[in-house]
């Protein structure tokens, strides 16, 4: 019965991630992935229905921001532990995740035993912090909003789509794009798109 287990909510828009985490936890009888959500709305509904002990959330949930979901989850259910799992090893994303209320931030390249150890620490009420690694000086120049715009560009969204999602005008998003190009030393719009696509894939642009 799941009532006797540590209930885990997985919010990730890649089914293969869910399969991997389920396989990792298969040998842990006290841990159970009760729900998988592909977007923020589904994750909130699942948490309302089940009241999980731990949520594992991807930074990017398609059109949704995983970090905004983390903030909403923690604001509504302060007792919920949240582990942010991402393709990005960036300390900037980690800083934003902890600011949103996450108890841990791990790369999807984290070895399974380390991920399991982090999960155990969180369900026991602890935190998980890894040593800081050097960050790209260029990325450090970007504001939190600019990093979110960069993420959405990398997901293939137009300025109009980004404006609608973030509740801003197209003119504001275009201004963000220009600021990002200047801060990253990119001359053209297609250079920004290439950079954003690589960043969305967790690769360090040249």
UniProtKB/TrEMBL annotation:
**What InterPro entries does the record tag this protein with?**
CheY-like_superfamily (IPR011006), NreC/VraR/RcsB-like_REC (IPR058245), Sig_transdc_resp-reg_C-effctor (IPR016032), Sig_transdc_resp-reg_receiver (IPR001789), Tscrpt_reg_LuxR_C (IPR000792), WalR-like (IPR039420), WH-like_DNA-bd_sf (IPR036388)
Q: Which residues form the HTH luxR-type domain?
A: 135-200
Looking at the record, the residues that make up the Response regulatory domain are 7-123
Q: Which UniProt keywords apply?
A: DNA-binding, Phosphoprotein
Keyword Phosphoprotein among UniProt keywords = yes
Pfam families, sorted: GerE (PF00196), Response_reg (PF00072)
**Sample GO molecular function, one term:** DNA binding
Family annotation (SUPFAM superfamilies)? C-terminal effector domain of the bipartite response regulators, CheY-like
**Top-level division of the source organism's lineage:** Bacteria
Residues with 4-aspartylphosphate modification: 58
Q: What PANTHER family does the entry give?
A: TWO-COMPONENT RESPONSE REGULATOR
Q: What is this protein called?
A: Putative two-component system response regulator
């Amino acid at each position: 019965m799941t009532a006797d287990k540590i209930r885990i909510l997985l919010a990730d828009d890649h089914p293969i991630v869910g399969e991997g985490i389920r396989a990792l936890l298969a040998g842990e009888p006290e841990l159970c992935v009760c729900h998988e959500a592909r977007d923020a709305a589904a994750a909130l509904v699942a948490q309302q229905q089940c009241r999980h002990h731990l949520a594992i959330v991807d930074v990017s949930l398609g059109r949704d921001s995983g970090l905004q979901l983390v903030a909403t989850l923690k604001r509504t259910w302060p007792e919920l532990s949240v582990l942010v799992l991402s393709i990005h090893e960036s300390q900037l994303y980690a800083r934003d995740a902890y600011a949103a209320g996450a108890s841990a931030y791990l790369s999807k390249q984290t070895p399974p035993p380390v991920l399991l150890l982090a999960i155990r620490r969180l369900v026991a009420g602890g935190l998980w912090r890894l040593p800081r690694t050097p960050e790209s000086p260029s990325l450090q120049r970007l504001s939190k909003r600019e990093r979110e715009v960069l993420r959405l560009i990398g997901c293939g969204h137009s300025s109009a789509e980004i404006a609608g999602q973030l509740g801003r005008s197209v003119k504001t998003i275009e201004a963000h794009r220009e600021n990002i190009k200047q801060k990253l030393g990119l001359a053209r719009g297609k250079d920004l798109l290439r950079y954003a696509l690589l960043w969305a894939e967790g690769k360090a642009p040249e």
